[in-house]
Amino acid sequence: GENVEQHPSTLSVQEGDSAVIKCTYSDSASNYFPWYKQELGKGPQLIIDIRSNVGEKKDQRIAVTLNKTAKHFSLHITETQPEDSAVYFCAALYTGTASKLTFGTGTRLQVTL
Amino acid sequence: DTAVSQTPKYLVTQMGNDKSIKCEQNLGHDTMYWYKQDSKKFLKIMFSYNNKELIINETVPNRFSPKSPDKAHLNLHINSLELGDSAVYFCASSQFGSKETQYFGPGTRLLVL
User: pLDDT per residue over B37-89, tens digit each?
Assistant: First the structure.
């Protein structure tokens, strides 16, 4: 099965700085990589995703890059704001007999003033 | 206009009791999931149903029994609750075969005393 590793587990940045979260996956058959943001007391919310036929995707201050050869993908948040503070999860979709989303262990991002 | 809803939001109960959590989605999706998030925030899939048929059943104790009366509903019944069942349980839904983005509910916080 798929295994997704995520680093760092915690990340503290000053407002306005950039934040980068990195993930690696094990199964080369995985072809869909979403990123979720989970605020305190809420469910995970999709913020951006990327398919394996694309190397980079941007949405305003958020971007995701994918290196299929190395099985790495990363989330980049620029010009961080206090409301970006949350737990971020990467995930990889393994489409075997049944599609299964495997999550990374999460990164707690703290944006300080 | 909540997309994925769960009830109850909080559940506090004694060891040995039986309890149920309900989930409903109004997105028209054909696939629904149950995830467990432990105290370390690790998200792990438990079950997945596609068109009311069980397609993913991870190594979950058989005290947990999902039921899908129709495509829009997926319930989780837990028998003989144990202390280790304390966690946040998330329901999610997606449309199989398309982008397969999973949309999560707000979670049910279960505390077993």
Answer: 999 889 999 999 988 888 888 878 999 999 999 999 999 999 999 999 999 99
| Best of B47, B55, B102, B103 to mutate (most A CBs within 10 Å, chain A) | B102
Summarize the confidence of residues B97-101 as an average pLDDT. 71
* Omega within 30 of 0 (cis) for the link into B69: no
DSSP lists the bridge partners of residue B21 as B76
Rounded to whole angstroms, how far apart are CA atoms B18 and B81? 6
DSSP 8-state class, residue B34: E
Is B101 in Cβ contact with A99 (below 8 Å)? no
Please give the C-alpha separations between residue B62 and each of A52, A94, B46, B78, B79, in angstroms, as whole numbers.
Answer: 36, 25, 11, 9, 9
CB contacts of B56 in chain A (<8 Å) are 98, 100
Burial A50-83 (b: 16+ CB within 10 A, else e): bebeeeeeeeeebbbbbebeebebbbbbeebeee
Structure tokens at B101: 């983005």
pLDDT digits (tens, 9 = 90+) for B12-39: 999 999 999 999 999 999 999 999 999 9
pLDDT surpassing 90 at residue A70: yes
Proportion of chain B above pLDDT 70, given as a percent: 96
